[in-house]
Amino acid sequence: MKRPIxxxxxxxxxxxxxxxxxxxxxxxxxADDMLETMYDAPGIGLAAPQxxxxxxxxxxxxxxxxxEAPRPLVMFNPEVTAQSDETSVYEEGCLSIPxxxxxxxxxxxxxxxxxxxxxxxxxxxxxxxxxxCVQHEIDHLNGKLFIDYLKPLRRQMIxxxxxxLKRERxxx
Length: 172
Known about the structure:
The protein is 29% helix and 30% strand. It has helices spanning 25-40, 128-141, 152-171, and strands at residues 45-47, 57-60, 73-83, 87-94, 97-107, 109-115, 121-127. It has a single domain (11-171), classed as Peptide deformylase (Peptide Deformylase, Alpha-Beta Complex). The protein is globular and about 45 Å long. It is of the alpha+beta class. It is built from 3 helices and 7 strands; from the N terminus they run H-E-E-E-E-E-E-E-H-H. The longest helix is centred in the C-terminal third of the chain and has 20 residues, at 152-171.
């Protein structure tokens, strides 16, 4: 089931999420809903707070090549356990901040530990777009948005555009 995506500013997007203690059927269904919502948007990552759930859960799939099989990942309690000193700059966007993009500098490679949908502990290294995406989504779990990396004036400008967008959608 597709879920509505919260638009910034929304206080739920700035909250630190609670760790997932137990993989309930509801949480696994939420993960499936989030994947459907992400693919429909379309996006390459989505965090639970973006659909109004303050749990440490993210989904991502950075496969963009035509004809390449999708690789959906569901991560409960994801945590960066190691990161490269080398950094990369990617132009990031966010489903909670539609049609706004900005360059963000992050570590080029990260190692992430998480619990998968079967309750198994997993650990994997990510590079390139996957590394950027997983860091972006984990930031959401800590109440941080990509615009928080920007200079205050640019961040305020984007926030005002989002407030206007929310007003327009409320009228529609």
